[in-house]
Design brief:
mainly alpha; elongated
Length: 133
């Protein structure tokens, strides 16, 4: 029974890793809709793995030392380490992209303010709107 739980956990983390590998390509494309779909799917995969891990740890608790030495548990642990390494490599790039995007948005905003200064507001009529009479 525990072997099946561990195998399922391994499969879930492999799917997370496979999905995470797509991020590099999506970031280079810069398509917001694809990035949103990617993020939604990533969150679903993580939530599913998290739920299963709770069940796995509850089942492991009575004999945790034995299961931590199990080859499937070690494989699962290796996948988790790979995910952490991927995060450590990707997060600085994502923060860099976000900083560049924020700077570009600030420049666009500043440019719009400057351009607005070249077009004076329409003169307001001081007379009655209805006219005389």
């Amino acid at each position: 029974m525990m072997d099946a739980h561990l195998q399922k956990s391994i499969e879930q983390y492999r799917r997370i890793i496979d999905h995470a590998k797509q991020l590099d390509l999506l970031v280079s494309k810069g398509d917001p809709a694809q990035l949103q779909a990617y993020t939604t799917k990533f969150q679903e995969l993580q939530a599913e793995a998290g739920l299963h891990d709770r069940e796995l740890f509850e089942a492991m608790t009575p004999d945790a030392a034995h299961w931590q030495a199990h080859p499937l548990f070690q494989e699962r642990l290796q996948l988790l380490k790979e995910i952490v390494e991927m995060n450590n490599l990707l997060l600085p790039r994502i923060h860099g992209i976000m900083s560049v995007t924020a700077a570009e948005l600030a420049q666009i905003k500043d440019g719009l303010v400057v351009v607005a200064g070249y077009f004076p507001a329409a003169p307001r009529s001081r007379g009655s709107v209805r006219g005389v009479g």
